[in-house]
Amino acid sequence: MPRFIHLKKTKTPWRPILERLEDRTTPVVGAYYSDASTTSDSAFNGVVEIVIPIPGGRPGICSGALMFDRNYILTAAHCVTNDAGQKISGTINFYPNASGGLNPIQVAFTAADVSIVQGYVPNGRNIVPNDVAVINITGKAPSGITGYELYRSNDEIGKSFTMVGFGLTGNGTDGASPNTTGTKRIGINTFEATGADVGRPAFFRNLVYDFDNGTPAGNFLLNRYGIDSTTGVTSSNILIETDSASGDSGGPGFINSNGKLLIAGIVSGGPPSLFSIGEGDYARVSAFADEIDGLTGGPVTAITSTSLFAVSPGSTSLSYSTPNVHIYDAAGLNPQTFIKDIMVYGQNFTGGVVTALGDVNHDGIIDLITGPGPGGGPNIRVFSGVDFSTVLFNFFAFETTFSGGVTVASADINRDGYSDILVGAGPGGGPRIKVFSGKNESILYDFFAFEPTFSGGVTIATGLINSDSQIDILVGAGPGGGPRLKVFDGALLNGPSLNGVPLGVLMDFFVYDAAFRGGINVAAGNLYGGFTDQIIVGAGAGGGPNVRVYDSNKNLREDFFAYSTGFSGGVRVAPALFSSNQRGIITTPGPGNPVSPAPSDFLTLHGYLGTNLFLNFFPYSSNFSGGLFVAGKVS
Predict the structure, then answer these.
(1) Are 421 and 380 in contact (CB under 8 A)?
(2) pLDDT for 488-520, tens place per residue?
């Protein structure tokens, strides 16, 4: 089948090398026999259109993607350079709720904002080495836009990927449709080879796919290079394989990893061919990750999932314990046996311990954050996950005279790659929350979650609730405050406030009957895959062990009792990763009577897959009734 007509015009040094339709012969984004689909899915609203002005001609069009830190656009070097390799200026178009068209949110950039991977060599062909660049737009990304992490594993071959871009459409039978750039389109293909497999020099570091027509005769990589590959991506026996076109250069190729879209490739180009059946190249992001990190100031990591979880003792006047925290591995061979037992405070302290997990020192290993329960000062400690004995931080979050205990959480709130430390006041304190930098312990935020006069304290958690890739803060009212949950938009913490309470609120509602006054325990985690976390709540002391799960639209997804319905000590909750594809909830009981009802039931730790019991064991003595705290992290 004939490939697209290959028109020629005089080159000009102002034009990005691979974005001249006249000089490109890559096929269009579109299934072989039909056009590609447009998309306005919010999951892809971080894919942007890059417009380069051309003196005396129509603007050049490229694509790109907002990186997770929301400060940089990742694209192809040939999109932001001229024929001489000189950086050029342009405009980035964001379409928050649409596939393209009128009224984009525009962000201009200059040549000084562009950084290019070392070794990029422009030429007049359709394939260039080291075709990677970033555009600095620090502080300019619109609110609500999704940022994406990099795919850092080198196992891309054989994986399907989603290509998204603003280029021409058409199909492999009829060719390109003119004047169709400017609409965001989506398609699917498979990474089937590396550049080296098809004769590219090793320094190109590219991933290669082909555009098949569904027949063995059209299996380009097999017939041309002897590479075992598919004859095309199908759905219900219908060929849906797609390819890139002029205008898609710089656009992302996403691999879906545990529900997250990660940028695995950057559209670079394809060699000239006379046929629609052919190959195309993506710059291999995993091979350029270190260089990209260098251009953007280091790797920026989202909240980290882990199969580890921490359990710690609570306290009552009748039942208390030394401050020993147990670390377990939910995906290990023996998830009921702790892998570490840590004395986090002096052994004479018996007020209980709260915990959180996060990569505080940015070494890729989950660390343990602890805070004392009632009776202890607000002494926060962070233990390195390398050995769970090295203390990374040791400080007081509030006045040393405050003895109401604290609650803790952890996530990268300011997007510098370090999990920050969130501390809320416990019962007897106001609804005050402080956020401390995981990098240097400085105070990032200090605010009230509810009316400052409320003295029941708060419970806190973090999660991705509105899919803009900015971590949000979840706050539950403590005892006396009712079952109230408030979620603060992480992108608006520096915005307007009233009486010290930020006004940037995503949701504010009662998760149980409004008459209940025992407060709530709150957590968040990605339980079902996808791009947002779910909200997990448990009733506070005085309530039954009722666990509920809400989605980002406040829809109730799960509603069950973790222990005997007659138990009124409440229930603590955390997300759990039982295996690479099994996510659930871990529950621990609040304080209770050691003899009634059914201590063998409510004194245990439970792990649930959906509402099915998965784990069931005593983390401490079966006679201990001071309640237990639990922490996990699943994103």
Answers:
(1) yes
(2) 999 899 889 999 999 999 999 999 999 999 999
